[in-house]
Write a structure and sequence with these properties.
The structure holds two protein chains of two kinds.
Chain A (H helix, E strand, L loop, with lengths): L3 E4 L2 E4 L5 E7 L5 E7 L5 E9 L2 E4 L6 E3 L9 E3 L8 E8 L8 E2 L3 E5 L1
Parallel strand pairs in A: 2-11
Antiparallel strand pairs in A: 1-3, 3-8, 4-5, 4-9, 5-6, 7-8, 9-10, 9-11
Chain B lengths: L8 E5 L4 E6 L7 E8 L6 E6 L4 E2 L4 E4 L5 E6 L8 E9 L12 E6 L1
Parallel strand pairs in B: 1-9
Antiparallel strand pairs in B: 2-7, 3-4, 3-8, 5-6, 6-7, 8-9
Chain lengths: 113, 111
C-alpha cells in the first residue's frame, strides 16, 4: 500500500547529540513537510520541500536541518542547537498543488535523556 | 494568514449526528476551508475541504455559510472511531502550501 513511513517511532537524544528522523513516501508526491507538535497544541511547520534538491524554512526552523536528495525521502536532523527538542514530529507529503490534501505519517516521538 | 476559532471540546453519543463548528470571520476570497482530524498518537488525516458550496464525501459533509465566515463539519452518524481532535484550517491558494493548525476541537463519543 502507498503511504508515508516514519522511523523510528520513539527516539531518545542525549544532551549535545544530533539525531536524524527518517521519512519515506511511496506516493510519488513532489512536496514533503516536517511538523512539530507539542502536548495539547496544533502542529507547527519546521521545513518543507516542493521539489527534489530544494527546501524552505517553515515557522520554527531554528535548530533543525533537512535534505531532499531523493523524491521519496526527506530526513530531518534535530541538532544540538535545538534546546527543547522533546516533541512529536510528523512528516507529510502532497502532490504539491495547493488544495490537495497532505498525507501524514504516524510520527516520531523524541525525548531527551 | 486568516485564523479560525473552534470550541475546545464537544461530546456526542454513538450513532448520533455531530456538528462541529468553525468561525473564520477574516476569511478572504481565495481561502479554502480544510478539515483534518487526528486520532491519539497518530498523524492528522484529511477529512474534507471546500470553497463556497457545501461538500460531501464518504467521511463527512461540510456546510459553508453564505457569507463564508463560518462552516460546520457534519459527521452523520458518530462512531467510537470518530473520537479525535478535529482541525479547521484555511488555505490561501495564493500562499505557500503549509497548513496552519490551531488547537482544534476534541470530540468525545460515548457508547
Amino acid at each position: 500500500d502507498g503511504g508515508i513511513t516514519q522511523s523510528p517511532k520513539y527516539l531518545f537524544r542525549k544532551e549535545g547529540q544530533n539525531v536524524t528522523l527518517s521519512c519515506e513516501q511511496n506516493l510519488n508526491h513532489d512536496a514533503m513537510y516536517w511538523y512539530r507538535q507539542d502536548p495539547g497544541q496544533g502542529l507547527r511547520l519546521i521545513y518543507y520541500s516542493q521539489i527534489v534538491n530544494d527546501f524552505q524554512k517553515g515557522d520554527i526552523a531554528e535548530g533543525y536541518s533537512v535534505s531532499r536528495e531523493k523524491k521519496e525521502s526527506f530526513p530531518l536532523t534535530v541538532t544540538s542547537a535545538q534546546k527543547n527538542p522533546t516533541a512529536f514530529y510528523l512528516c507529510a507529503s502532497s502532490i504539491g498543488r495547493l488544495n490537495q490534501p497532505q498525507h501524514f505519517g504516524d510520527g516520531t516521538r523524541l525525548s531527551i535523556l | 494568514d486568516a485564523k479560525t476559532t473552534q470550541p475546545n471540546s464537544m461530546e456526542s453519543n454513538e450513532e448520533e449526528p455531530v456538528h462541529l463548528p468553525c468561525n473564520h470571520s477574516t476569511i478572504s476570497g481565495t481561502d479554502y476551508i480544510h478539515w483534518y482530524r487526528q486520532l491519539p498518537s497518530q498523524g492528522p488525516e484529511y477529512v474534507i475541504h471546500g470553497l463556497t458550496s457545501n461538500v460531501n464525501n464518504r467521511m463527512a459533509s461540510l456546510a459553508i455559510a453564505e457569507d463564508r465566515k463560518s462552516s460546520t463539519l457534519i459527521l452523520h452518524r458518530a462512531t467510537l472511531r470518530d473520537a479525535a481532535v478535529y482541525y479547521c484550517i484555511l488555505r490561501d491558494v495564493r500562499g505557500t502550501d503549509k497548513l496552519i493548525f490551531g488547537t482544534g476541537t476534541r470530540l468525545q463519543v460515548f457508547p
